[in-house]
Write a structure and sequence with these properties.
- The protein is α+β, with helices and mostly antiparallel strands and 304 residues long.
- Among the domains are: 82 residues, Trypsin-like serine proteases (Thrombin, subunit H, Beta Barrel); 92 residues, Trypsin-like serine proteases (Thrombin, subunit H, Beta Barrel).
- 26% of the residues lie in helices and 31% in strands.
- It contains 7 helices and 12 strands.
- It has a 6-stranded antiparallel barrel with strand order 1-2-3-6-5-4. Strands 7-8-9-12-11-10 form a 6-stranded antiparallel barrel.
- A hairpin with a 5-residue loop joins β8 and β9.
Length: 304
């Protein structure tokens, strides 16, 4: 059987004449495109390498124009950065370390007011019998304060940083360190608990800040340094408190139960007493604070 050819054969003279006649007839029926039609599709006949070359030329031209317009950006050196920082330090009033720490703890500090049956106004309503401070330690409204601030109170009222007032109740006590845990019944929408730190790394001379409501005024901020560690102090009910932080940040009646914080704004202690050999009950340079570790351990909270 004869196989079909796998290559083109040379056309005969008769076939060539027929093809020529067909091409001529087609040309008469469909004239070639004019120059205007070709101009509307300029890139269809360009080879790929030519199109790429044209794009490269356009990109180079645009880059050159932008460089001429905005200039070549300068490379910053370390000297430029140092000069900028020095200029900022010389021209801007930056907050102190104590101020920054106080700002961090401020949303978590509360005023604690107590009332009892012995103090009533002429209308028979309970009057404040004492004032102290506290610090929020959980978003559920749990607050650390001093036991002597809330002990024996008929009613406990706390005022949050945003002004919201709420009644609170005692849920735990630690008499050996004069500490109490209370819980508020109403909470602000944006309640912010304090960040609890550690007193283990404290050293004499470290900066600390006390925040609270001395004499009910506040929140008030005082700054100082750690004067000593592992101190002992006998409370008014003759209980000997141990392992206390000694500091010289000013504190007065009303500061009790407030936080003692480090420069990171972390609570490292709870202000619990001031040392004063007189009966004036005013600050003369020494304040004691229970460590946050002892507070957490006594309340059954995990170590910080």
């Amino acid at each position: 059987m004869k196989r079909a050819a796998l290559y083109s054969r040379k056309p005969t003279a008769q076939e060539a004449d027929r093809r020529f006649s067909a091409a001529a007839s087609a040309a008469a029926t469909h004239p070639p495109r004019t120059a205007s039609r070709i101009a509307t599709q300029p890139f269809q006949r360009l080879p790929l390498w030519a199109a790429l070359l044209l794009c490269a030329l356009l990109t180079a031209t645009l880059t050159w124009a932008l460089t001429r317009q905005i200039g070549t950006p300068q490379r910053l050196t370390q000297d430029d950065i140092n000069a900028a920082v020095l200029h900022t330090l010389n021209t801007q009033d930056l907050p102190s370390r104590a101020a920054r720490a106080a700002q961090l703890i401020a949303p978590s500090v509360v005023r604690v007011r107590t009332q009892d049956e012995d103090k009533k106004n002429p209308q028979g309503e309970l009057q404040d019998s004492g004032v102290g401070s506290g610090v929020v330690i959980s978003d559920e409204g749990v607050i650390l304060t001093n036991l002597h601030v809330v002990q024996g109170a008929k009613r406990i009222q706390v005022t949050f940083a945003d002004g919201l007032e709420s009644e609170a109740q005692i849920i735990g006590v630690q008499p050996e360190n004069d500490l109490a845990v209370i819980k508020a019944k109403r909470l602000p929408d944006d309640l912010q608990p304090a960040t609890l730190g550690s007193s283990q790394n404290l050293q004499p001379g470290d900066e600390v800040v006390a925040v609270g409501f001395p004499f009910g005024i506040g929140p008030s901020v005082s700054a100082g340094v750690v004067s000593g560690l592992n101190r002992q102090f006998g409370s008014e009910d003759k209980t000997m408190m141990r392992g206390l932080i000694q500091a010289d940040a000013a504190a007065n009646p009303g500061n009790s139960g407030g936080p003692l914080i480090n420069m990171a704004g972390e609570v490292v202690g709870i202000v619990t007493a001031i040392l004063n050999p007189t009966s004036a009950r005013t600050f003369i340079g020494i304040v004691f604070a229970a460590t946050i570790e002892s507070a957490g351990g006594g309340m059954g909270m995990p170590p910080f």
